[in-house]
Each structure stands twice: as C-alpha cells, then as structure tokens.
Write a structure and sequence with these properties.
Layout: E1 4-10, H1 19-32, E2 37-49, E3 57-59, H2 69-81, E4 88-90, E5 97-99, E6 104-106, E7 110-119, H3 127-137, E8 141-147
Antiparallel strand pairs: 1-7, 1-8, 2-7, 3-6, 4-5
Helix pairs in contact: 1-3
Length: 148
C-alpha cells in the first residue's frame, strides 16, 4: 500500500522554525486533520524535501528548458558536499545562477531546515489550514505532496 505524505515547509529554505513553534503547529494540525500521524523535523542546514514517486520533470526557472536528472544529481552531490550551506548552481541551458530551491519541480519539491509531515491525511489541507499554519510559523509555506 502506498503512503501519501503532505509535507509543509517554509518557502525560505534557510528559515529556522524552532522546536516549540513546530510543536505548536503539530498540535494545531492534530486537532484539524484526521491522519495516521504527524511528524516534525528540525535540521541545522536545509535538506531536500522530495515528492517521492511523483517527481516527473525538473525545468529551469529562467528559460523553461527541461533539465537532465543526471545534471541535477551531480549538482545535488556538489551542494551536499558543502552540507547544503549554499543551494546555488549554474543552469546548463542558459548559464544563469539559480537556487536549487527555485527550480521548477513537477510535482513540487523544495529545501527546508524544518518540515511538518502529515501521513495519509483523510482530507485536503485547505487554504484555511495553510493560512493558520503560516500565521503560527510567521512565514510563507509551501506544500510538497509525496507518494511512496
């Protein structure tokens, strides 16, 4: 059986939401969403937050060209060697400096120092919930939906 995980991350990959605030979001979500369980994670540096088997393509945010997964994998290895302290890379298509966080991932992915994972929610995480979570966190958020 596959798992559906809704991952909530700050739009700024370097923004740090500390444990008490993450726990507040978790408590709020537990009262609003029926699901298997909710986990929170905090990291010192950004980690890649993937969409699991949903990822189909990656494209350049500057020119729209599809990017090769081999190129992306090599760049990911390079930034990982530097502990993700910088997400900057030069695109192979238009030679522009971009952040890996700004690539167009289909389905959406991102980078974050903290994340909230909702496992197998029974309903959609709607705009009211997203607005409330953004208010608690104090920053705009992105949603990454993963299927494993």
């Amino acid at each position: 059986m596959s798992e559906h995980i809704v991952k909530i991350i700050p739009k700024d990959p370097f923004y740090k939401v500390f444990e008490p605030t993450l726990q507040s979001v978790k408590t709020f979500l537990e009262t609003r969403i029926h699901c298997d369980f909710i986990e929170v994670e905090f990291n010192e540096a950004p980690v890649f937050v993937d969409c699991g088997t949903n990822l189909e393509t990656i494209s350049c945010p500057q020119c729209g060209a599809k990017l090769d997964f081999d190129w992306w994998g090599n760049v990911m290895d390079e930034v990982a060697d530097n502990s993700f302290t910088s997400l900057k890379a030069e695109t192979p298509c238009c030679k522009k400096q971009i952040s890996l966080n700004d690539l167009n991932y289909d389905f959406p992915c991102g980078f974050a120092c903290c994340l909230i994972c909702i496992y197998n929610p029974e309903q959609i995480v709607d705009d009211k919930i997203i607005d409330a979570v953004q208010s608690i966190l104090g920053i705009g958020i992105s949603i990454v939906e993963a299927h494993l």
